[in-house]
Amino acid sequence: MSDRPWLVVGLGNPGPRYAGNRHNVGQMVLDVLAERTGARFSRHARAQAVVAETRLGVLPGGAPGPRVVLAKPTTFMNTSGGPVSALAKYYDVPAEHVVMVHDEVDIPFDTIKLKLGGGEGGHNGLRDTTKALGTKDYHRVRVGVGRPPGRMDTADYVLRDFTGTERKDLPILVDDAADAVELLITEGLLAAQGRYHTARA
Question: Which of 153, 156, 157, 120 is nearest to 137 (CA)?
C-alpha cells in the first residue's frame, strides 16, 4: 500500500433542502465515517468543499489505517469535479486513491457495489469528476437507491427523500456503505467486492 493519503468524496447537493434526498446518500456515508473517527468537517481554503482529515480502519496486523481525507463538495452535484480535482492536487492523491461514494439507480435499494473505473451510468456527479480528473480510473462505492417507480423521471426521483419504509433500513445501508469504504481502503477492492457483491440474507 502506498503511504499517500486516500481521498473519499461523498456526492450530494449542498444545503438542508437536499440533505435527505436519495442523491445525497454519499454525503450521509461520509458523515458516518467522520463520526466513527471523531473527525470534524471544516471548509477547505483551496477547494469548494468541507473536509475532515483522519485515519480510517485498522490494517491487518492491527496497525492504524491509512491517512484519509473525507470530503463533501459544497457545489451542486453536476459540478462536483472541480472540488474533487482541486483536493486531489492539493493532497497529492493519485486517481486510484480517489473513492467516490454515490447513489446508484441501477442497483436495488439496500445493495452496495464497488468498482474501479468504468462508465458513469448517466450520473452527472461522476461525469463531471471524470472530466475534471481526466480519467475514469478512480474507485466508486455505489449505494443502491433503486429505479424510479412507473414513469417518474430519474432526476425527480433522486431529488426526493427516501420513503418511510426505506428510512427504516437507511441507517443500516449507510453503515454498510461506510464499512465498504473502510474495507476497500484497508484490504483492497477485491476483498470489498467479495464481501458486498454476494447476496445478503
Answer: 120
- The reply, when asked if residue 124 is annotated as ligand binding, is yes
Q: What is the pLDDT of residues 36-78, one digit of tens each?
A: 999 999 999 999 999 999 999 877 788 888 999 999 999 999 9
Contact 78, 163 (CB under 8 A): no
199 in Cβ contact with 57 (< 8 Å): no
Query: Quick check: pTM over 0.85?
Result: yes
**Homologous superfamily of domain range 6-196:** Peptidyl-tRNA hydrolase (3.40.50.1470)
Environment class of 107 (CB within 10 Å of its CB; exposed 0-12, middle 13-18, buried 19+): middle
- Active-site residues: which are they? 23
Q: Which letter does DSSP use for residue 101 in this model?
A: E
**18 is annotated as contributing to ligand binding:** yes
Q: Exposed, middle or buried: residue 136 (CB in 10 Å: 0-12, 13-18, 19+)?
A: middle
Element (H, E) at 190: helix 189-196
Q: In 3D, which of 119, 124, 59, 67 has the Cα closest to residue 93?
A: 67
- The response to whether 78 counts as a known ligand-binding position is yes
Secondary structure letter of residue 104 according to DSSP? E
